[in-house]
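Problem statement: downstream parser choked on a complex file, so we are re-checking the raw output for the 4'-deoxy-4'-aminopyridoxal-5'-phosphate run. The parser issue turned out to be on our end (a line-ending mismatch), but while we're here, posting the original submission so the record is complete.
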Amino acid sequence: MNRIQESTIYREFSDQNSTSRTHAARASDCIPTGTSRSLLKHAPFPFYVDRAEGIYSTDLDGNRRIDFHNNYTTMIHGHGHQDISEAVRKQLELGTSFSAPGAREYEFVRHLCERIRSVEQVVFNNSGTEAVMVALRIARACTGRNRIGKFEGGYHGSSDFVMVGGHDVPAPDDPVRVSVPTADVAGLPAAATEDVVLIRYNDPQAVREAVERFGGELAAIIVEPILFAGGVIPATPEFLEVLRSETARAGIVLVCDEVVTLRHAVGGAQGFYGLEPDLTTMAKTIGGGFPVGAVGGRREFMRVLGDPDEGGTVANLGTFSANPISVSAGLEAMRLLDEAAIGHINDLGELARAGLRSALEKYGAPAQVTGAGSLFEVHWTLEPLIDARGPTTADADRNLLTFLGMCNRGIQLSMRGIGALSTPMQRSDIDQMTQAFDQTLEEMNEDGIF
Ligand code: PMP
């Protein structure tokens, strides 16, 4: 037994979740990692959710927690929102999957085009992964080039060419700004690392260097305006300005991955920053809790998805693309996500970050909080958090105990300490979360964890 396993928090978690422990052991026999959602696995075993309603989820042992994870930001209106459920019920009666195009797809696309300035056309598919795959194909087809630029720590789904350079980033003091990435997982083709250029985030000079060295070979550079998996780190306006001007100058397609950040403002984070990308990828919130992905952008790029006699050479396929349930739920969810709703969760985000920071200060804990709008992350490191390098130095044990300690007190963050707020949350829920954080820190401190 090490000091983590002996800690009060770890033991309490194990005691509170005995049914999940039994289920995990059983499930691991026939599902590798015990769940197809392998990212949701953690020590000592994950709790398995039985049901969720509003801001709460309840696990197999009957533990009810406020869901600050929200399926990695997806459930922006919480679980089972009345209007979204009603839209789904109506659609269930009308049919769930058709053998010809459904009519509501157009309505949803119109809505997205009205919201997002740079988006003139949209196609749907079934996940952010697919959206990114198609966006990169569009970029290759439009430019006749092969390589892709991505930023250190950026997660853009699980297709081959973006499963690189996510985890293994240079150390904070490494002067290298542009590099060839390593693979995040085994089983990728060699081209997935060879054809990708890895660029330091929030570093205008790195962007200039990447374009200078590889510009003529780069079909696209893909960027998140707030680096999510890499640390919930907002871009600086200067970084995005340089990225836009350098890519435009070198004929590189700029793909803005708004799978997470669309929540930041009505027009997405790109609207907030005044960024005009060539293509935008979307998913998560735009499905209203159902599987979805979408690529949108300017006509001059989207045209390669058109009919072959109009220059169409790239295909967006998928038996379930634009499936009627995702379209109905997603349209309702996005209509609900108006300026007032976004203002509400962004205000709560400020409150959450301030509450977490003051608890860290109270205990002198060597940790920091990043985030913007309705997102935050706790990092157990004192390295500067301006790109993806600082977050990789975080203490994994303290991270795990923070996650488990919060779970024990009825609050679910992500295992890495990310929180994503939902519109039904109120100030009292944020207070409850910050109190649970305070108590978790107290317990960790008493156990000598920091
Ligand atoms: N892009 C970003 C920025 C993401 O955060 C994610 C998922 N977390 C994806 C793409 C992939 O989306 P999906 O899980 O729907 O494939």
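For whoever reads this later: The chain has a mean pLDDT of 97.
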